Structures are given as structure tokens and as C-alpha cells.
Design the sequence.
């Protein structure tokens, strides 16, 4: 039992170290690319590349925010923040979703501008710069790939990098087409297509992070199923005041009033319910036990 717990602890520490490394590597790679892209854009007098460098600088900022939230989540609770700073991961995931949608707005504006006022592509150097952008953003996205479904904050970082890789692919493709055919309209058309794809991929992140910000039941957790787990114990008569919310993008909490037939086996029932809830991904459960004869008045109408 002790060995199993120790193994799980080492796995958890290993995962934290790996994610921390992913954030640091991603920030350094993208910061270097911003400098390189802006320099090439300035040298070749390309407003497009300099604008994209500004967009990528925003992504570096969002990665720094995500890493900050990731580290704050590990800070111990105190008298002012009794849950610590775990909720910052939810707030950052919401901010990242909003940043992505704002970026889409800029892409749409620039695409429509180019659609009505076509601009010349500055040459093969710009295509190569964008190709390097595909590589750097792709590598950074890959760093977060395996953990993106486990943590909403990591998913936000992944979507940012994947979206940037997509933008860079679009620039490369449109640049090559324009370079060899002179068909400048392909540039804004690909920009519009990329904007639509980013909105589709970001919508789920925005919905989930907004839901967690409002203390909604996290996706993947079913209130009726959780209630069924509690009621499945023979000693339990009913339950009410059931609340389920997210402490962070990876931790779920619950409070509930549980009505028992008698209090003789309360500690045993509490231990078994908490164990069952752990299997449902709820690691922080606070249970209040009552007898049917002195049950508190129920005020909520959403769940019995």
C-alpha cells in the first residue's frame, strides 16, 4: 500500500517537472522566434511578419501566464486563501480562451483588409521564416499534447501553439502560391479559413473555463451519477445540498448532506463514500451527516 502511494507520488512529481520543463522550453523557443521574425520583417519591410511577431509575443505572454498559474496551484494554502491559489489555473484558461478569440478578431480584420487591398509578398525569406514558425509552434504544441485533456490550462497552452502553427502553415502555403502564381487573393482567404478553425477549436476551451469560473460542475462529472454513488450505500437514506465544483483545472471538490438510518457506523460509511468518490475523480469531499428525524430544511430546488 505504502509502495503504491510512493509510486503514485513519484509519478505526480515527475508529471509536474515535465510540465514545468515544457512551459520553460516553450517560452524560450517562442521568445527567440519573435525576435527572429520581427528582425526579418523589419529587414524585408514586411508589415505582415512584424504583425505576426506581435501576435506571437502575445502567445509568449499567455504561456508565461499559464506557467505562473501552474506554479501558483502548487503554493500551500494560507489563512487568506484556504484553498491556496489553485483557482488561478481556471482564470488563466479563461483568459487564454479570450486571447485566442481576440487574436481571431485581428486575423479577420487583416484578412478582410488584404481581400480588398491585396499586398505583395516580400519573397522567399518570408516563406522560410514562416516555415520555421511552423516547426517551433509545432514542437511547443507537441510538448503539451499528452496532458492537454487532463488540465484545461495545459489545453489552453496547446491550443495557442497549435493555432500559431496553423497560422504559420497558412502563411507558408499562401506565400508559395503567390510567389509562383501571383494570385494574391489566396493570402486573405487562407487567413479567413484559419480564423474559423481557431474559433472551432477554442470554443470548447472557452465554454469549459467559463463553466469552471462560475463554479459549475466540471465536464466529465455527472451530478446524478455522484448522487447515485452516495445513495448506493445501505445505511444512507437520502442526500441533499449536493454541490460539486472545481478547485482547479485538475481537482474537483464536493460538499453534501447525507441522511443516515443511524449514526452507529458513521465513520465507516464516511470512509467508504469518500473512497467511492475518489474513483469518480472527486478528491476533496466534505460530508455532513444527519438523522432523518433531525434533517435540515432543504432550500435548493435543482437537486434533491
Sequence:
Amino acid at each position: 500500500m505504502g509502495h503504491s502511494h510512493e509510486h503514485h507520488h513519484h509519478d505526480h512529481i515527475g508529471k509536474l517537472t515535465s510540465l514545468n520543463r515544457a512551459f520553460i522550453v516553450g517560452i524560450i523557443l517562442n521568445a527567440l522566434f519573435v525576435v527572429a521574425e520581427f528582425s526579418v520583417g523589419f529587414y524585408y519591410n514586411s508589415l505582415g511578419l512584424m504583425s505576426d511577431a506581435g501576435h506571437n509575443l502575445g502567445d509568449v505572454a499567455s504561456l508565461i501566464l499559464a506557467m505562473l498559474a501552474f506554479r501558483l496551484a502548487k503554493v500551500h494554502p494560507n489563512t487568506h486563501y484556504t484553498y491556496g491559489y489553485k483557482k488561478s489555473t481556471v482564470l488563466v484558461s479563461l483568459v487564454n480562451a479570450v486571447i485566442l478569440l481576440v487574436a481571431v478578431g485581428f486575423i479577420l480584420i487583416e484578412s478582410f483588409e488584404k481581400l480588398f487591398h491585396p499586398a505583395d509578398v516580400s519573397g522567399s525569406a518570408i516563406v522560410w521564416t514562416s516555415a520555421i514558425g511552423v516547426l517551433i509552434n509545432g514542437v511547443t504544441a507537441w510538448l503539451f499534447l499528452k496532458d492537454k485533456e487532463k488540465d484545461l490550462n495545459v489545453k489552453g497552452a496547446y491550443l495557442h501553439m497549435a493555432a500559431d502553427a496553423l497560422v504559420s502553415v497558412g502563411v507558408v502555403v499562401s506565400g508559395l502560391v503567390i510567389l509562383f502564381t501571383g494570385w494574391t487573393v489566396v493570402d486573405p482567404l487562407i487567413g479567413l479559413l484559419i480564423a474559423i478553425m481557431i474559433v472551432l477549436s477554442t470554443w470548447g476551451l472557452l465554454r469549459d473555463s467559463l463553466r469552471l469560473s462560475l463554479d459549475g460542475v466540471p465536464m466529465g462529472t455527472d451530478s446524478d451519477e455522484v448522487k447515485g454513488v452516495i445513495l448506493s450505500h445501505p445505511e444512507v437514506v437520502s442526500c441533499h445540498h449536493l454541490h460539486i465544483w472545481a478547485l482547479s483545472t485538475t481537482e474537483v471538490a464536493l460538499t453534501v448532506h447525507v441522511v443516515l438510518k443511524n449514526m452507529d457506523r458513521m465513520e465507516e460509511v464516511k470512509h467508504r463514500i469518500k473512497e467511492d468518490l475518489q474513483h469518480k475523480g472527486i478528491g476533496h469531499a466534505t460530508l455532513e451527516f444527519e438523522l432523518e428525524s433531525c434533517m435540515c430544511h432543504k432550500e435548493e430546488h435543482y437537486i434533491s
Summary: The first strand starts at residue 236 and ends at 246. Residues 97 and 206 are 5 Å apart (CA to CA). DSSP finds eight helices and three strands in the chain. Strands lie at 236-246, 252-260, 282-291.
